[in-house]
Design goal:
The chain is mostly helical. It contains eleven helices and no strands. The protein folds into two domains: 71 residues, no CATH class; 207 residues, no CATH class.
Length: 284
């Protein structure tokens, strides 16, 4: 247990230092400008400093041969069938995610906490407006940049931090642990993963998605599988905005509201897909 706490503190310490360094570089380079381009640079630097570099440095320290890719399980691949199945699961899960997000959005806090609810809604409205600014693309070049910045980089960096680092720290012995410990590690990591996004009204679907990433990581033994799944989810959102021209696109609403039944079907099919993935990797 002491080893777990020490490693978490080391990870958080490195994360704090590199995050402050990233903020400093941005302030020097962009002068704190609130323009869209400047804020995109800020997101890039923060993603690098907060989520991408700390896991690599920690893994370098903790691997006995100083090979960070080994500790993070990035040195392990998977068959193309596993990747295709993982992508199919994420595409199939979109209506289910929208249904869960819609149900999450209907949660109302007690009247005594109304001021907190209003602050949460105001924060999420502000975050949505900023996301919409980032997603605007009037040509293919900007679209490719948005996919790299808002889909590929976050998918890789966040999976390195959460499934690759935090989940394995809590497990205590990487992917070799079995029993309740691995389930505890998966769900604690999923909760932290969702909470750190600071979006209360999307907490439940993001937590469940994080848990799914955690399980496919354990089942496959390769961090590349959840990275690809995470990228698929983010990439679809970026492409949907580019095609439909609005954040509330069909990809964000199908499965919710009057199409709730599609969300239910999607939830069932996604569960079956994960079961198939589990059985397939278990046989291998």
């Amino acid at each position: 247990m002491q080893k777990i706490f020490v490693r978490i503190l080391v990870w958080l310490g490195i994360m704090a230092v590199l995050t402050l360094l990233a903020m400093g570089v941005w302030m020097i380079a962009c002068g704190g400008s609130q323009s869209t381009d400047s804020l995109k640079w800020l997101q890039f630097l923060q993603t690098m400093g907060t989520f991408l570099l700390p896991p690599i440095l920690c893994a370098w320290l903790w691997d006995e041969n100083h090979k960070p890719f080994n500790w993070l399980n990035l040195n392990k691949g998977a068959g193309w069938q596993s990747f295709v199945l993982a992508v199919g699961i994420m595409v199939c899960a979109i209506p289910a995610i929208n249904l869960l997000a819609d149900l999450n959005n209907r949660i109302e806090l007690p009247e005594s906490l109304d001021f907190i609810e209003q602050k949460l809604k105001a924060y999420e409205a502000s975050a949505a407006a900023l996301t919409e600014r980032f997603l605007k693309a009037d040509n293919i070049g900007v679209l490719i940049l948005n996919i790299a910045l808002m889909a590929l980089l976050p998918a890789l960096a966040e999976e390195l931090s959460f499934r690759g680092t935090l989940q394995q720290i809590i497990s205590g012995d990487g992917l070799r642990v079995t029993g309740y410990t691995v389930h505890l590690a998966i769900w604690i990591t999923a909760i932290v993963f969702s909470a750190i996004h600071m979006q209360f009204y999307g907490f439940i679907p993001r937590m469940l998605m994080g848990a799914a990433f955690g399980y496919v990581f354990v089942w496959s033994g390769s961090l590349w599988i959840p990275v690809v799944m995470h990228f698929t989810n983010n990439g679809i959102a970026v492409l949907a905005y580019y095609i439909f021209g609005t954040e509330d696109s069909y990809a964000d609403t199908i499965g919710a509201g009057v199409t709730w039944w599609l969300g239910v079907i999607s939830l069932i099919l996604t569960s079956l897909g994960l079961l198939i993935f589990y059985r397939r990797t278990r046989k291998q």
